Q: What sequence folds into this?
């Protein structure tokens, strides 16, 4: 009986490990990114939002050179992108969006979060909100 209990425990651990691997594979489907990509135009921005998988979260940083906090936020997003590779992190200069007048320096840096082609959340003047 003593040896039987050890074998049962070993079998149980193997079964648990296999179940955990199966669950991990099921949860980690889809594309992996791991980097902060630069969008070059408003068209590319829209295409990224519209053509991405419905289950993928997209975080877009709208920035401009010389605006307080934009460089620091780009660095932070680069680190987050490496850690959360299932999330697509992008950045685009406000002047390249085609709607630069909507993104004046007093609302930058701005973060927009999309999922399934829909805007889920937006953060204007991130440095004022999060210091």
A:
């Amino acid at each position: 009986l003593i040896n039987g209990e050890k074998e049962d425990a070993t079998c149980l651990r193997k079964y648990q490990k296999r179940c955990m691997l199966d669950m991990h594979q099921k949860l980690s489907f889809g594309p992996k990114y791991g980097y902060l990509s630069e969008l070059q135009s408003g068209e590319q921005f829209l295409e990224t939002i519209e053509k991405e998988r419905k289950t993928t979260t997209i975080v877009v940083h709208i920035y401009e050179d010389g605006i307080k906090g934009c460089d620091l936020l780009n660095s932070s997003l680069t680190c987050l992108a490496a850690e959360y590779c299932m999330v697509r992190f992008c950045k685009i200069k406000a002047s390249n969006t085609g709607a630069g007048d909507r993104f004046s320096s007093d609302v930058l840096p701005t973060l927009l979060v999309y999922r399934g082609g829909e805007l889920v959340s937006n953060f204007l003047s991130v440095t004022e909100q999060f210091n």
Q: What stands out?
A: The first strand starts at residue 36 and ends at 38. The chain has two domains: 1-29, 31-129.
